[in-house]
Amino acid sequence: MYKAIVFAGTTEGYEICRFLSANKISALACVATEYGSHSLEAGDYLKIQAKRLDEQEMTELFHKELPEFILDATHPYATEVTKNIKSAALASGISYIRVLRAESQSQNAVYVETAEQAVEYLRDREGRIFLTTGSKELAAFTTLPDYRERIYARVLSLPSVVEACQKLGFEGKHLIAMQGPFSKEMNEATLRQYECQYLVTKDSGKAGGFQEKIDAAFACGVIPVIIGRPVQEEGISLTECKRMLAKYFFCEGNHHITLLGIGMGSEDTLTIQGKRAVEKADLIIGARRIADAVALPGQEVFYEYRSREIVDYIQNHPEYSNIVVALSGDVGFYSGARKLLELFGEASIQPEIICGISSVVYFMSKIGLSWDNAKIVSAHGKNCNLISLIYSYEKTFAILGTADGVAELTKKLTGYGMGEVIVYVGEKLSYPDEKIFAKMARELTDYKADPLSVVCVYNPEAEPLPATHGMPDEVFLRGKAPMTKSEVRSVSLTKLKLDQNSVCYDIGAGTGSVSVEMALRASQGQVYAIEKKEDALNLLKANKEKFALDQMQIIAGTAPEAMEDLPAPTHAFIGGSSGNLDKIIDLLLTKNPQVRIVINCITLETVSEAISCIRKLEEFGADKEWESEVVQLAVSRAKNIGRYHMMMGENPIYIITVQAHKKEMSL
Q: What is the pTM for the complete model shown?
């Protein structure tokens, strides 16, 4: 006994059968011919009956099987069949549901109610006709003068159909026997080959390839003549039907989910693979601009960009079988796909991924620059220290996130002495009003751009990042303020173990040599140079500007008071403490109990104070594993004395490292 009997023979009917089978709901698919059964695959939950049934046979079938639903998904023009199904269901006392095909609307087209009215419209007009209404309507068009020469009829490639058409006088190149579906390009090629001026079609909806015919007609300058539906039916859509079945039978859903990169947003940058995925979809999900760019007429759309809400919606709507989540650009380039994949993984869902054309690929090709050696970042909603990257890389590509993004960037570039670099700007990429141009940075300081513009900054005088710590002392602007020398700097920074996202304090920054090297290593982080002396503050500012370190912030004041409002550090270098070492360390650990601290000491008293602080930490922090190390570094440099070189010793430096780690729990 079946739970549902589906009268199929249409795309909607086939889709309902597949939905029932996939959700393990027993169903019988009734199709009129063996040909119709080829679009379905029988299985444990789906049986197929290929036979034309009259009303009495339908009634007998319903009484025998006693299904819970009779689903009528026959063709919109099969009015007699629909009448019989409805009557038989009523006689059997079984719920009858009519599944309607979505009706389409087209502008610049001629609508008529019958084939005879289409003939009357065409009778007094010249031009060739592409007839796609099927073989049953052909007889009406034989009343047109010269119909054998004017009409090119496309029908099913069945011998009986071809024979019937030939008897009406349609043969040779005027009879096109083919099996659909037909793409817009295929329809367009046929219209152009036969130089047609009119296309006659029924409004068969999306599943009948109606939109592809209309789009092809408009592309070729051909007038569509549309035969409207013979009756106005009452029923529900395919999606509404699946939703009703899912709720009634408590379906959990059997989704095929595609994460689709749509390119820049115009139809031209959507890949062929992406177009096919969209055509199969019964639901499109995405931000409004992105979803509207790909959704087909009449297609269901859920406007949403938040990952959690998207996953929840899919899980709560089992009626959708093929879902496309549309994402801008490419799914692997600063895309929401990353978070979605994490959430789908937690739900044990494995989506299909279809790549798109990313903005960097599109834009760089437009401006004629290779991108394989460019630094690629996104400043959309995040801090990426663009200035430092532009200083160090010849080509830097960035996605900006605000209308004043170009102006803010170029103001900073100009302020750091890089006003001559070339800035390529791209706005509304791929759209008809796309705008791409190039100017020097100093010419764009007041420019208002599209919020999601992209830029590529070309800096032929870029200074590559040093590969190691310990830049030469001579590269820094120096005064009377103390400076940590190259060798000491190298060892101290090695002990700090910075990464590109570190948040660093340089306490007692002096000229800023340590701050500068910190900032070069923590290119995507932040450096706070804390200094109380006026002359040193001026040198700090000068060195910051020389190396274009926008992520380096100068804090005037004495530690620890000057540190109180700063973000929690991951690393701290203490080069001068003004006698406040214990208070400085206390505040650092309060902000981040696992901060890594490196202290430079010259005097024995400072060494003693530092070691005392460490011992106190270890005593009161017994719940942690303490890493501590003391290294003495003695550096001598050669000095020319006539023909000889004499080694001149620098003051020995004690380099102290301390960091707390979470203690591993013992079993």
A: 0.70
